[in-house]
Amino acid sequence: MAKKSDENLCKFAYYSGLAIGAISTRIEPIPESSNGRSRLYVMTLGVLAAYRNHGIGSKLVQSIIDYYESEKDGKLSTVDEIMVHTQTSNTDAMKFYVERFGFEKGELV
Questions:
Q1: Active-site residue, from 14, 15, 41, 54
Q2: Over 90: is that where the pLDDT of 7 sits?
Q3: Would you call 54 a catalytic residue per the annotation?
């Protein structure tokens, strides 16, 4: 049986009944943390090409950030950071996360 995850960590964007975008995140332990701290990891963010540059991706990311902020003292109290990976060649994605949301570039993996 699959464990039900928090539905606030995965969201869809719809237009006229069609799913045009989605974000999926999970809570995972921070490997170097010895005190049980965790992070919110953005596994995937996508918007259909015809619907890009209309703020849909930004709204999806912001909805996750808003949920994180509202739950800092609740069920997400052990979460210390939000993390995302992207290809180094995907400069648009890096610019999106850094300039729009203030993410910091981490080490190259």
A1: 41
A2: no
A3: no
